[in-house]
Design a protein that fits this description.
binds adenosine-5'-triphosphate; single chain; binds magnesium ion; six-stranded mixed β-sheet; Alpha-Beta Plaits; alpha/beta
């Protein structure tokens, strides 16, 4: 295979469960040595897609190839080249970390001595050497995820599928796992990861495929997706929460899209296509309405805002304004 040929090729893939269309005509590629982030909310079809690509589930129509092999017709050839760390860790809780890895290696027909040295190497790589001989149900969530990742690498796969690798981890656990994925990619691994976390896709993926209700609704590099969300955003923060609604009112009228309110932080954001040109006028209007601004600034959209604007699952905002300039609530 030439270095340019995609390692994962998905074409027009569909899968239904009864009346539920889990995937409808999904097509995309993953190129060698890159990370594609499949980003979508609960029920979008992410796990269904990963299960099809790793031969655990058959698609209804369409095709998919991994490392040149057809995932529907050539399962036996696909299995040795894919690694899967699933959404629900596939670890035997009553076995130690080491026993789990040796067992997986034996399932791949590695001789015992080789299975044991592979297990030791992976335990070391994922910071589990000290806990290696403890039953794995005593592991923390982060350790369990690392063990699961190690297990997915036992057979030295060419493509790694990570289904929501950091769901349920604390911020430190997430960062540790991200660093491990980055290390694997810098060693040449090709990765398809699914996530509901936009920052995770932003941090790890070269390209992002946004999926919702089984369909791809956008695809691109992080910056391209941010462009789709309307370029620059304006954020205004107030200390007095009773000012949030009047601020929202001004921004909804002046901005180029719905104004989004974060009540907990007192922040209101709105897309602003010609940000700098409009800023002075907005500051003047807020000043005339006697609103004390704690902070105001232009920034790039977050991937959360990108997703919300693409899916339309955005805090509803009809642009209307209540006259709240003086009343207290
Ligand atoms: N075995 C099944 N039987 C019936 N329905 C299923 C089955 N597997 C998935 N579904 C349905 O297909 C849709 C897609 O599910 P899937 O698990 O792929 O979503 P997901 O994007 O992985 O969601 P999550 O983020 O919650 O893991 C959902 O509506 C789900 O209920
Ligand atoms: Mg899932």
């Amino acid at each position: 295979m030439s270095p340019q040929a995609p390692v994962v090729v998905v074409r027009n893939l569909s899968k239904s469960f009864g009346d539920i269309k889990a995937l409808s005509g999904v097509s995309f590629d993953v190129h060698a040595g890159t990370v594609v982030g499949l980003l979508g909310p609960n029920g979008a079809g992410k796990t269904t897609l990963v299960r099809i690509l790793t031969t655990l589930l058959d698609a209804d129509t369409g095709s998919a190839h991994v490392a040149g092999f057809d995932v529907l017709r050539d399962k036996a050839r696909v299995r040795p080249v894919v690694g899967l760390a699933g959404q629900y860790a596939a670890i035997d809780p009553v076995m130690t970390g080491r026993e789990n890895l040796v067992m997986v290696a034996r399932l791949y027909h590695l001789p015992r001595a080789e299975a044991e040295s592979r297990a030791s190497e992976l335990l070391m790589r994922f910071g589990l050497t000290d806990a290696a001989d403890r039953q794995s149900d005593t592991y923390s969530g982060g350790m369990r995820r690392r063990l699961d990742l190690a297990a997915s690498l036992v057979a030295d796969p060419r493509v790694l599928f990570l289904d929501e690798p950091t769901t349920g981890l604390d911020p430190r656990g997430r960062m540790e796992l991200w660093a491990m994925v980055r290390d694997l990619v810098s060693d040449g691994m090709t990765v398809l990861l699914t996530t509901q976390y936009l920052d995770e896709a932003d941090k790890l993926a070269d390209r992002i495929v946004v999926i919702d209700h089984g369909r791809i609704i956008a695809e691109g590099e992080t910056d391209e997706l941010k462009g789709m969300a309307g370029g620059t955003y304006l954020t205004v923060r107030v200390n007095d929460l009773s000012s949030v609604e009047p601020v929202r009112c001004v921004l909804a009228q002046e901005g180029d899209g719905p104004a989004m309110v974060d009540d907990s932080s007192g922040e209101v954001s709105v897309p602003l296509a010609r940000g700098a040109a409009k800023l002075a006028g907005i500051v003047r209007r807020l000043d005339e309405a006697d609103i004390a601004i704690a902070d105001i600034g232009l920034r790039q959209p977050t991937l959360d805002e990108v997703f919300l604007s693409l899916t339309g699952h955005v805090a509803s905002d009809d642009g209307s304004c209540k006259q709240t300039s003086t009343e207290e609530s």
